[in-house]
Design goal:
Length: 221
């Protein structure tokens, strides 16, 4: 088949990468994780001090659920090239998935130190504090997140989760309505809004949002 313009552009963009790292990145970008794996493994085995390969292979292992190995590789990448905000954020994700919350908080905080307006890291840090029960700190970082990117529906959802944990159902409903204003097909926001409305004794309104969540494909008992 004739390569598309996109394929040509991507090949050009990665033309300077050595093989098999180039093949690994192209397969990874296409979502072909199992195909990318052996290319990354081979390149890292031959180039154990390449920070780019280490962090990309770490990200792929994290996507495969191999968090311990992912954490080792991403930490090694950061030791070689410390100021990688995205890698620090991805490391935080792997640590959080491993229930190492304090370490995840430290990693997200490092990402924000490197790049203070990193919205994903701010949101993730807020979610980590939420998971650890530190609701005031969670809200502090999520508020910073929406100040930078007020159109981020996921952050409004996260804020609502914090407010619900604080017992502020009215505030949670307001945040969830904002999330749905920004993203009407947000199934989780519909579900959580249903929960809050039920707790406020508005069962008919709650059922509307539960039904919307089901219609959007949410599969939750």
């Amino acid at each position: 088949t004739v390569p598309t313009k996109t394929t040509v552009e991507r090949s050009s963009r990665y033309s300077q990468l050595p093989e098999p790292l180039r093949s690994a990145v192209l397969a990874h970008e296409d979502g072909q994780i199992e195909d990318a794996y052996p290319f990354y493994r081979r390149f890292v085995a031959e180039n154990p001090k390449n920070p780019t390969a280490l962090q990309l292979f770490g990200l792929l292992l994290s996507q495969l659920g191999q968090y311990d190995s992912a954490i080792v590789l991403m930490r090694e990448s950061l030791s070689l090239f410390p100021d990688q905000a995205e890698v620090a954020n991805n490391l935080g994700n792997a640590l959080l998935k491993s229930n190492r919350i304090d370490e995840a908080i430290a990693s997200y905080s490092e990402a924000i130190r490197i790049f203070p307006e990193y919205v994903d890291a701010l949101r993730n840090l807020g979610l980590s504090y939420l998971q650890s029960g530190q609701f005031s700190k969670a809200l502090e970082y999520l508020e910073r997140c929406v100040e930078i990117r007020p159109t981020d529906a996921a952050t409004w959802l996260a804020k609502a989760n914090v407010r619900r944990q604080q017992g502020d159902l009215t505030g949670a409903i307001t945040d969830l309505e904002k999330a749905l204003e920004l993203q009407p097909d947000y199934a989780e926001a519909h579900h959580n809004l249903g929960v809050c409305l039920r707790l406020q004794h508005h069962p008919e309104k709650a059922m509307e949002h539960y039904q919307a969540a089901l219609n959007l494909g949410m599969d939750r008992a």
